[in-house]
Amino acid sequence: MGWSKRLMLSTSFATLLFFLPFQHDISASSGDRVIPMGHSIGIQMDLSGIFVTNDVLVNNEQWLKAGDSIVRLNGTDIISLGDFEHAMMKAKKEKIHMNISRKGAAVEVLAEKDAVKRLLPFLKDRTEGTGTLTYVDPQTGTYGALGHQIVDSSLKSPPPFKHGAIYLSEIEQIKKSVPGTPGYKISSIVDDEEYLGTIKKNGVYGIFGTWNDAYKKVLAEPLEIMQPTELQAGAAEIFTTVKGTEVEKFSIRITDVEEEQFHFILTDSKLLEATGGILQGMSGSPVIQNGKFVGAVTHMFVDEPKKGAGLFLVTMRDGERRK
């Protein structure tokens, strides 16, 4: 996969900086325990086809649109970029017949061969980025991360995918947040041959999947899941990674507790010195209060990067269970 040899910006996915509609449906029972994580992760998803990332003119009148999926080329099924390149090598005529899926509708395009040759830089069959691992459930062998849905920044939609995995990543640089401009992490995969887990679901409340049992060195002790009615305004902590692969605890203050979410402010001087506030890529960082697992960081206030909002873990866990 080659990830260990190149850097990743946390902006590979469209970062959700504004509030999503929450559906508050508490299904966790008192005493449920999961392991809080906070590790920076690289996320890779193999798409279910190849997709166009920009509007591209392919003949005098017709454009391929960003988000289009190329289904067939001259009658050959196209599943990957390799299929596309092979089909183009076989093409003899100056006109290329393309079958496109556009927002669920079938579209046929007769394209100029030279225009299709120039199309390759605007195609993708994989999406990738970074985020933060939220929890591992040692009872079910599953995990949850991010606390919000992945939206591909070029497709501007949740990417349809056939395979996906998460990997431990190492923070190499940080671009600090400043009011009006969110900061971000620059990281790289530690070992692209050793995945932490597979991705089974990209849902509204995060990504979820099966944990790799062979990867036990990052696991800590499980904590009891806090019920939303227990959360109080006041001191709390987040677990996150801002340097290398080390998960650290940083102080925050819960400022508002609502039925569907909670607000907080970063108070840890060490964290603020390193990041300037919440960063893109910190989504999913666990929030802990009084030794109980509250939830995950999901949003920041762009104009006040010290301020953020979080999703209750019981809601995130309910999102994992829903089909």
TrEMBL record:
TM annotation in the entry: none
Domain Peptidase S55 intervals: 100-323
Residue ranges that the Swiss-Prot or TrEMBL entry lists as coiled coil: none
Domain of life according to the entry: Bacteria
Cited PROSITE patterns: SPOIVB
Pfam families, sorted: Peptidase_S55 (PF05580)
Signal peptide coordinates: 1-24
Keywords (A to Z) from UniProt: Signal
Protein name per UniProt: SpoIVB peptidase S55 domain-containing protein
Organism, scientific name: Sporosarcina koreensis
